[in-house]
Write a structure and sequence with these properties.
This protein has eleven helices and no strands. It has about 170 residues and is mainly α. The chain folds into two domains: about 5-60 and about 160-174, Oxo-4-hydroxy-4-carboxy-5-ureidoimidazoline decarboxylase (UraD-like), CATH 1.10.3330.10; about 70-150, Orthogonal Bundle (UraD-like), CATH 1.10.3330. Helix 5 (about 55-65) crosses helix 10 and helix 8 (about 100-115) runs parallel beside helix 9. The longest helix has 23 residues, at about 145-165.
Length: about 170
């Protein structure tokens, strides 16, 4: 769909279509709906990003807590959102060797205990090896740095998901 179609969507349709561009946070897209009309896909993305940036630190941590563990229980149980399932599969997280899966589970738990939210990374921009490396590095980081890094990754995930739903600005001009 193009940006004019996005702008013409009724509230319920807008939230249904874009409600998971930020994992399990349809309230974010519900809030930005009132910012229509968007002049471009980039403007829609910026509105979501600005909303996230305006949240207090506790709200940003809440956004991070909406994300599932990478290669975690939800993947094994088949309870991931469609988007997360596709992204984790693309990164190879569904096919980890037993030793990698064990290390991922241990590091996920260590990370969550240290920070109170799961490690978030844009799986579509990484593979399982780079994700494991980044997760191990994150476990040694500080809270403020990990919250900021995690929010930056949420925005990358949002960008990728939006671009899967809306023609980008360049495509609209062709």
């Amino acid at each position: 769909m193009d940006i004019s179609t996005v702008n013409s969507l009724p509230y319920e349709d807008f939230v249904n279509i874009f409600g998971n561009v930020v994992e399990k946070c349809p309230i974010i897209t519900a809030a930005v709906w009132s910012s229509r009309p968007f002049v471009s896909l980039s403007a829609l993305e910026a509105a979501i990003s600005e909303f996230i940036d305006s949240l207090p630190e506790s709200g940003k941590e809440g956004v991070l807590r909406c994300h599932p563990d990478l290669a975690g229980r939800d993947l094994r149980r088949g309870t991931l959102t469609r988007e997360s399932r596709e992204e984790q599969a693309r990164a190879g997280l569904h096919a980890l060797e037993p030793a990698e899966a064990s290390r991922m589970a241990r590091l996920n738990e260590e990370y969550k205990q240290r920070f109170g939210f799961p490690f978030v990374v844009c799986a579509r921009m990484n593979d399982s090896t780079s994700i494991l490396r980044q997760l191990a590095e994150g476990c040694r980081s500080e809270l403020a740095a990990e919250r900021a890094r995690g929010i930056a990754e949420v925005k990358k995930i949002c960008r990728v998901r939006l671009r899967g739903l809306v023609l980008d600005d360049v495509s609209n001009k062709l």
